[in-house]
Amino acid sequence: MPDTATKPAIQFQGVGKRFGDNVVLDGLDFSVAAGDRVTLIGPSGSGKTTILRLLMTLEEANDGLILVDGVPYTHEMRGGKRVAIPEKRRSLVRRRVGMVFQQFNLFPNMSVLENIIEAPIHVLGVPKAEAIAKAEDLLEKVGLADKRDARCTQLSGGQQQRVAIARALAMEPEILLLDEVTSALDPELVADVLAVLRNIAETTDITMLIVTHEMQFAREVSNRVLMFDGGKIIEEAHPEEIFTSPKHERTQEFLRAVL
Amino acid sequence: MNDFWNWDHAAAVFPSLIKGLGVTVLATVIGMVIAAILGLLVAIVRRSGVRAVTWPVGFLVEFIRSTPLLVQLVFANLLFTQFPSLAVGCAVLGIHYATYMSEVYRAGIDAVPKGQWEAAVALDLPRGRTWRDVILPQAIRNTLPGLGNYAISMFKETPFLAFIYVVEMYAAAQAYGGGNFRYMEAITLAGLLFLLVSYPTSLLVRRMENRLA
Amino acid sequence: MSDNLQILVDLLPRLGEGVLVTLELTVGGAVLALLVAFVLGLAGRARTRWARVPSRVVVEFFRGTSLVVQIFWLYYVLPLPPFYVELDPLACGIIALGLNYGAYAAEVVRGSINAVPTGQWEAATALDMGPVHRLRRVILPQAWPLMMPLFTNLLIQLVKGSALATYVSLHDLNFFIGELRKGTTETVFAYTVGLLVYFAIAYALTLVMNALEARAKNNVGQGPSLREILRLTPARVDTAEVRP
Ligand SMILES: Nc1ncnc2c1ncn2[C@@H]1O[C@H](COP(=O)(O)OP(=O)(O)OP(=O)(O)O)[C@@H](O)[C@H]1O
Ligand SMILES: [Mg+2]
Predict the structure, then answer these.
(1) How far is the CA of A194 from the centre of ligand 2 (A)?
(2) Is A71 strand, coil or helix?
(3) Nearest C-alpha to atom 4 of ligand 1 is from which residue?
């Protein structure tokens, strides 16, 4: 159970998001406690990716507030009005949030090591030697110590995704967003990536927000599952509970289709 | 203020600029017709696969394309003194741009799916008919934006004709400037007239590109 | 014919001077064009209208008004009232070439930056890189190889455009062709030699640009490195690297 004394790591308060006439999120409320591992499930196009992108400021919400550690992130209420928070202050929150993408998005103009140390050195101001040592540790952790100086384009998809995970972890994020990180991979490469993520879940207390179609993985790693449909959360429960006895009819339908 | 821009000069030079613009447009149209036809022939010849033909044609295309149009114009005008400069100029413009257009056609022909050739073979169509009835109609559609872009580009290069004594728009401006020791209005107006024609045309071509894309 | 060759040999130093002037125009024009291209190209995708609109106007203006008009505007109009700016003819040529081809290249810069996959922008944002850092370290290194082939085309166009310099009293390669013709009284000989020299310059520049393009591509993990190309032996394809 989340500790009620501490502020939730992530909090959505009445968040709305439209693309033109397409209302994707409509007054969405939910929160994630620090250290929680939350999996978002729901039909395609329901807005799971959009939630993660809002948290990464890759999209801008039309209504409502997003708070990180109880502090307004992209917008705040000032004199009863919702106003955008300037980029400088957003940046301070954003650097505590990391994201791993479906398509890896490694920088092809940099080596594996350079991908990992670029932001710690130039964004956080970590000394170079320290950043390299840290990166080597992380590469060890994701099982790619020997690829330190390789070109990203020479790696398999699974290896690239593990580098991308190391790159995100190098920023020492408090919150890690994972958007279908295995769905662009050949089936035989999925296991390695999931093993790395399982290891992170076991050895760190990073708050994780996971979108995945790997229900088995969701079951093993997460301690809460949010079923998402029609711009709202329609069911939330412990994975054992939701996967074995879903209450909501839509959840039952959805799980029948994917399991 | 009068020093900067004199409307009397502007008005005086305007009629000859418009006359020059007529020559400029005429040269562009004739040049582009030559380029469009010759470019297509070059593209087809270069696809023939006969080394003895494709190699020299390829070299010639490369040579013409990477040497200055201006020098080619002056050269041709010195060689073919029996023809009027405007005719020589249009021919050189046409040949120079044919080398660009041949690339546009090549890309257009390459963009026709391979299945179309195979279907033509399956139907036992003769090669000439395949080209005429199947490939070219599809290829040429793809080449229209390229044709438009090069027409605009040729239009802006017609002032080179001034150096072989064709009185197109720039030559008219320069003649007025030299005669009156007053270049400001003449050359500026010539530039603005180029812009006035080429910019709307390029907007049209861009729209066509977007529609075809 | 051998007389002609003798005259050509005698005129070789003059040919050298002509080529030098053409190369000065080319390099000067290209450097200015590159500068103009990046300034206008980056401004052309700025968020504020105050940068975007002026950049578009300048680009369309220099693309639309014809190089010939621009160079002679600088040459004939600027020295007269009300400007009284007498430019050195070489500066005149370089500025006209740089602005004209810079405007074309600005579109190349803008288009190539837009062609870098959005995932790269987003990954950089997710690492909290600022806009300048992101552009300099992530986006431009990837846009650069996309720009190269188009820059090569423009560079060859620029060399060709530089032949106008003869008419602003510069003794460039084009001017030399005229001298050679007067010397030999052989139009065909003089122009064939002259055009071949232009061709050689264009060819050499294309080779250099292709090498730079290969290097730029290799830098983003596409194609062989320049060293592998120059070694001329087929590069070893390390398939073991691709799969674990
Ligand atoms: N940039 C955009 N412009 C317009 N519409 C968008 C954009 N991004 C997302 N959408 C729309 O928003 C809705 C939610 O998209 P989102 O990607 O968040 O869904 P998802 O739940 O992640 O789906 P999936 O499981 O297929 O990944 C969809 O209807 C999509 O078409
Ligand atoms: Mg998604």
Answers:
(1) 18
(2) strand
(3) A19
What secondary structure letter does DSSP report for A27?
E
Domain that holds residue B39: 20-212
CATH code of residue A108: 3.40.50.300
Q: In degrees rounded to 5, what are phi and psi of residue A207?
A: -70, 130
Distance CA A202, CA A194 (A): 12
Which residues in chain C touch residue B70, judged by CB atoms under 8 angstroms apart? Answer: 160, 163-164, 174
Is residue B54 classed exposed, middle or buried when 0-12, 13-18 and 19+ CB atoms within 10 A define those classes? middle
A121 lies in some domain: yes
Question: CB–CB of C203/C194 below 8 Å?
Answer: no
Structure tokens at A113: 């090591």
Closest residue of chain C to B177, computed from CA coordinates: C76
Instruction: Among A50, A234, A254, name the best residue to mutate to test ligand 1's pocket (greatest count of ligand atoms within 8 A of Cβ).
Output: A50
pLDDT digits (tens, 9 = 90+) for C110-133: 999 999 999 999 999 999 999 999
Here the CATH number for the domain that contains residue B26 is 1.10.3720.10
- B77 occurs within a structural domain: yes
Judge contact between C58 and C65, C-beta under 8 A: no
pLDDT tens digits along B111-155: 888 888 888 888 888 888 888 888 888 888 888 888 888 999 999
Token readout for B195 is: 């812009």
Q: Is C203 exposed, middle or buried (0-12, 13-18, 19+ CB in 10 A)?
A: middle
What DSSP line would sit under B18-34, residue for residue? HHHHHHHHHHHHHHHHH
* Partners of A82 in beta bridges: A77
pTM: 0.89
List the alpha helices (DSSP H) in chain C.
2-43, 49-64, 67-72, 89-115, 118-126, 131-134, 140-161, 173-184, 187-219, 226-231, 239-242
The residue contributing the CA closest to ligand 1 atom 18 is A47
What's the CATH superfamily of C2-229? MetI-like (1.10.3720.10)
Q: In this structure, is residue A26 part of a structural domain?
A: no
The answer to the question of residue B9 being in a domain is no
Pick from B67, B191, B202: CB nearest C199: B67
Q: Which residues span the domain enclosing A44?
A: 33-56+96-258
C236 in contact with A at a CB cutoff of 8 Å?
no
